[in-house]
Design brief:
single chain; alpha+beta; six-stranded antiparallel β-sheet; 5 helices
């Protein structure tokens, strides 16, 4: 309701409590890793979301190369972030995790937190932003370009299977 994410509005309402990650007074930095079919496309570091001290930085697929994003709160390319402090081993482990988690998806965002050379996985989401935020034309081209849209004129090799599934009363429906 707040951010306009349709799928979340359809989900069962429940509370999930996560153990606090990190030992500082402020929340650890976010990392949002955009992936397509098991490949890292781009990553964003963010700190201070929802505060007056909000900043982001964009990284290439190696999580080491800074990329200009064009966000109004983007740090300068030479500004330092927690992603820059990651050891090569941790960076490699994060990339390997994101690649494996994203392999089944055309496009998915792997979210986590970073503090003291540690990564804490948070969630997978199909939303590139919070549902209300705009994205730059460059990001729209970059993220939109990773989608593999099907050829709608090509025959579906599983058409018979889909048609059979749609016959009769669908399984799992509430029947009166």
């Amino acid at each position: 309701e707040v951010f306009g994410n349709w799928a979340y509005a359809q989900a069962r309402r429940l509370l999930i409590a996560q153990e606090r990650f990190g030992d500082r007074a402020i929340m650890p930095a976010d990392i949002k890793i955009f992936c397509a079919r098991g490949e890292v496309v781009r990553a964003f570091w963010a700190r201070g979301y929802g505060s007056g001290d909000f900043h982001i930085a964009s990284f290439g697929p190696d999580l080491a190369t800074r990329v200009r994003h064009g966000h109004p709160y983007e740090l300068l390319l030479d500004s330092h972030t927690e992603v820059d402090e990651l050891s090569a081993e941790t960076r490699h482990a994060i990339i390997a995790f994101a690649r494996e988690a994203s392999e089944p998806f055309d496009m998915i965002r792997v979210d986590g937190m970073i503090e003291d050379d540690r990564f804490q996985f948070l969630e997978l989401t199909a939303y590139p932003t919070n549902g209300l935020s705009g994205i730059s034309a460059e990001s729209d081209r970059t993220l939109g370009g990773i989608w593999n849209l099907p050829d709608l004129n090509a025959p579906d090799p599983r058409e018979a299977e889909w048609r059979e599934l749609l016959q009769g009363v669908p399984k799992g429906t509430l029947q009166r």
